[in-house]
Structure formats: C-alpha cells, structure tokens
Give the backbone structure.
Amino acid sequence: MPILENRAAAETALRAALPRGSVSLRTRADGDFSAVLPDGTRKALHLAWAGYGYPRDVERTLRDERVIDARSKEDLVVIAARTLSDGARQLLRSEGLSWLGLDGSAELRLGTVWVDRDGSRTSPALRPAIGWTRGRADVAEALLAIMAKREPERPGADDVPEVEALANLSGRSLGTVANTLASFDANGWTAPGRQPRSRIVANAPALLDSWAVWESTQRRRFDGYHSIHREPQRVIDDLSAAFGRSLILTGAAASEEIRPMLTGSWVVTAYVDTTDGWPGVDLGTRRAKMIPAAVPRIRLAPASQVIVKTRGPGHRTWVSSPARTYADLLAGSERELEAAEAFRELALRQFS
C-alpha cells in the first residue's frame, strides 16, 4: 500500500476513478482491497505507491516484494503516483498494469471495467514548488552526499542525519537546516522516521532530481583555460601538479574515474579548495602558466564548504561527491548529459 499520507489520497483517487456501481472495494485486514467486479468475481487488489511517477519511481515500485507477490498470484495491481510521466505510462502499459495519478489521470483494466482518463498534469497542489535557495541547496547536497555513501539494502540507509550533522557538513545554520527539512517534508521527500523526532528520506529520486536540475541551471561562475594537451588525463596530471591536494575533480573528470565512458577529448571541470576564493584559483593558474580561453579545455572555480566537506578520494586527487558530480554532468555538454544517467545508475543506486 502507499505510505503515510499518500495511502488515503491514493485510495480516494482510485474510488473516484471507478465508474459508479462498477467495482466494489472493501479494505482487508492486511491493507489491500477485496474488489467485487460487475460479474460477481471477487479479486484481491493491491494498490502500490510510486512517488512522483517517474520511470525510476515505477521501476522501484515494481521491485517491491508485495507487488511481486500480488502479480505472482494474479491479483489486481494498481500503481498510484502524484502524476505519471509519459515514460512511466509506457512502462506500465508494457507490464500490463493499471495506474492512476492524484492529478485525476487513470488507466485502469479491472476485468471488464476499463477506465481511460487524462488529468491536469500541471496542478501546483500536487507538485509544490520548494523555492530553492543557495542555503537550501547546500543542505540538500550534504544530505545527498551522506546517503550516497550508504548501502541501499542496509537498515537505516534512508535515515536523515541529525540537524547538527547537516549544519556542520553544509556550512549552514541550524535554523536553515531545520527550515529546509520542513520544506522537504511538505514535498513528500522526507517523512517521520521509525523513532520519535526522526526522519527518513521517503522519495530520494525526486529529491535528487529537483536539486540536481536546479543546480545545473544556476549561473555558477567557472573560469576557462587553454591547455597544450588534448588528452584529458594529461590535463588532469598538469592540474594535479599545479594545485596538489586542493584540486577537486567534478563532472566528466570525476565520473570517468569511476566508470570511463567518454572517448576523445572533453572539458576537465574542477573546484579548488582555497580560503582565498578566486585569488587562490588565479594564483594556481599563474603558477602553472595557464592561459584564459573563451573555448576552454579546463574549467575551474573555488570550492564551497559543502563541496570540500563532501569530497572523496580519487585515483590521483579528490573528486566531488556523487551528487555534485551528477549535477555538474547535467550542466555540461551533450556528451556529459549522456554520461549523467549511466553515472547515476552506478554511483547513486538509491536515487535510481
């Protein structure tokens, strides 16, 4: 069944989608339904929740043990979500499953009862705008970095850390962290946890999607430089010699260390851990005799506190957290965009 407050909303949407007098639903003790069809046939009906309704949300729901069990017993299965994307709808059609959205859309195949209804896919009440700010984004980045280090299958993998831990990692105040988590609650990304005053991440893919898209569209300043080398690995060697352990690779430079995918040359993007900001970056580039370029092979920027505190060891130098790497891939070239989803599947499994 759907979790938390989504359970009642999904049930209400299902009952509203069914034609009057067509299917009679009764709630069973195990939380599923007993459905009586127009011909008198009685079938068990399992209503499952798929979050925001992206294909990865649906795929995760289809792997749920209760859904697998219901399908194996040939029970009726209905997948509910806030709204179903076109890709998610196609996936469910290929699986022969019924679905409905809280936006009023539905495609139900329950015996002889067929329902095809399109709803308002732009309802602001269903997709509340979080109103991203730099402070909220830093808190989200810290949370995503912590989760990316956990094994998805282990207990507690979805626990939200203490406010103090997120404040320390993000460099933001306790008040900013608390307000940010409250906004995540309102969006359904986080929810009350198993213990009093605890939280869990209830919809990790939607949280990462929203944050990464916002980050990738920000006008973050990077200075571009020329390089005498076309081979990116040679460029990284030169940067490592110039900046040492203050260098933090991101984007393609970081993702290629985990899983090489790109052929030929690509722009090396990196942050520099410096207390001087841009003067610290300029000092390193002058030392390396790097030449500014309008069409660069190297892009550099000072690292924020959250980027520094969430970095991890690479083969030769630091790399940014998987979430930061993913967001910077989304902000890159078409080739980097292609690499972004493959990187997500590999390094951000709990968000896929």
Q: What stands out?
A: The first strand starts at residue 24 and ends at 27.
